[in-house]
Amino acid sequence: MTAVNRKHKDRLFTFLFGKKGNKAWTLSLYNAVNNTHYTDPDIIEFTTMEDAVYMGMKNDISFILCHVMNVYEQQSTYNRNMPVRQLMYAAKLYDKYIQQKKLNLYGKKLVRLPVPKLVAFYNGTEGENDQILKLSDAFIQAGNPAQADIEAKVRMVNINYGKNESLLSSCRPLEEYAWLVWQIRENQRTMGIEDAVDKAIQDMPENFEIQEFLIGHRAEVKDLCITEYNEAETMQMIREEGREEGREQGREQGMMELLATQVRTGDISIEKAAQYAGMTQEQFLEYGR
């Protein structure tokens, strides 16, 4: 496997609401999700893991606000493994927090930590409704799951345009983002993904808060949208191929070959390919040699 792109590409959601976007939009999103009314964006402390990819994965957005550690993920493909993924992110973020604050975990004094809030914003086409995803649902049923010593809950929120109108109307940038994604999908009925993105931005109402930002970063926005589209298309192809193959070995081989091709062509990153294959980056690279 050659010409591997090791750089993780952000999603458009992350570009808008993460560290590179507008802090006021991030605060608006937080207020909408938590029914709060904070007004000072500067109280946000971003903690997103920018460079280090943990266990072959990189979190989308994380920040601390008023002693709450918010871990936000956006998913265009329904993924029931989000609790274990976000648990891994949270553990890494706590480790980073403890080191930065020089906290002593071995002393008698109780170390105070920010409260974790795990949220997944879903805008896929599989029609999934709001739900709470729990880590315990994944435990092998050898005993009573209620006796497990670890639990993680992820609040999954459907942010497709026309869904959760109360939430979306409470955060204009989120509602406008949802409109953009919907418009791109509508445009794709009659045109390719690049033209669909261009037309959606062109047709965006002038009073949209995010319009100027999107136009100012049009090339990067288009690249992010195309990357996410290719990822979703890859997952669909993998699923269809899996259904067509009659043997487990054939399904695995077909999936790996497809992922390797997508990595070589630059359609998805090595991090995403390893994630889809359920491997670390090192295992995926070893497999492809």
Q: How are the SSEs placed, and which strands pair?
A:
Layout: H1 12-17, H2 23-34, E1 45-46, E2 61-65, E3 68-75, H3 82-100, E4 115-122, E5 131-134, E6 153-158, H4 165-170, H5 172-187, H6 193-202, H7 211-216, H8 218-244, H9 248-264, H10 270-277, H11 281-287
Parallel strand pairs: 3-4, 4-6
Antiparallel strand pairs: 1-2, 2-3, 5-6
Helix pairs in contact: 5-6, 6-8, 8-9, 9-10, 10-11
Count of strand segments: 6
Number of helices, counting only DSSP H or I runs of 4 residues or more: 11
Following the backbone from N to C, one meets helices and strands in this order, namely HHEEEHEEEHHHHHHHH
- The global form is globular
The strand order across the widest sheet is 1-2-3-4-6-5
Largest sheet: 6 strands, mixed
Quaternary state of the chains:
single chain
Roughly how many Å apart are the termini?
A: 6 Å
- Low-pLDDT segments, ≥5 res: 1-8, 52-56
- In terms of DSSP E residues, the strand content is 5-15%
Radius of gyration from the CA trace? 20 Å
Helix fraction? 40-55%
Name its key features.
single chain; 289 residues; alpha/beta; 6-stranded mixed sheet; 11 helices; 11% strand
Polypeptide structure, described:
By secondary structure, the protein is α/β, with parallel strands linked by helices. Helix content is 46%, strand content 11%. The protein has a six-stranded mixed beta sheet with strand order 1-2-3-4-6-5. Helix 5 crosses helix 6, helix 9 packs antiparallel against helix 10 (270-277) and helix 10 (270-277) packs across helix 11. The longest helix is centred in the last third of the chain and has 27 residues, at 218-244.
